[in-house]
Amino acid sequence: MDLFKVGDFYTQRIFESQSRSNGGFGEISQGNKGTNVLNESRIKVLLLDKDTTPVISMCATQSDLLKHEIYLVETIENNERDVMRHLKCLVYVKPSDRTIDYLVKELENPRYGVYHIFFNNMVSKSQLERLAEADSLSAVVKVEEIFQDYQVLNEYLFSFGLEDRGLMTQQGIWDESALDTITSSLTSLLLSLKIKPNIR
């Protein structure tokens, strides 16, 4: 188990993303073997949310970004971004309802030429349908699940970044939403490490 290697594998997969010939919403991709990049700019923007920003910051340096021609990093929550249709946008976000709302608004009025969307955990069919309906300009050329819903701290240590959220309610019972978040993040960890756990 080496979390640095896993983090590096996933960041390289995002940074080196190329289009699939059949477009983004035809299927969820599990690879990046497409070659349809003739009309795409080499210069890229990386669009993150509040959950994936610390994930990327722990796995990639500014030099790594520049090496892959990523010259701009933005957050999807920022509504003051400029329109730059000549840029390819690499989106790396958590598939939460809040982030899907932001993505829907983004695709209804796209600021960039094409979008390669990566989710850091499993995305639901209903969420994909919402995005497909919003993408009337066919700006999305790729959708992929990346199982890294956790922050890499060192080779053997990770964090779910939940320090500000309590796991128990004031009545001393499990907070259902926090428990669901931890379960989902732990599932992504196991999938990324290809580990089948023994639950006792």
From TrEMBL:
Domain of life, per lineage: Eukaryota
GO biological process: vesicle-mediated transport
InterPro entries for the chain: Sec-1-like_dom1, Sec1-like, Sec1-like_sf
Family membership noted in the UniProt record: Belongs to the STXBP/unc-18/SEC1 family.
Protein name, per record: Vacuolar protein sorting-associated protein 45
Name of the gene encoding the protein in the UniProt record: VPS45_2
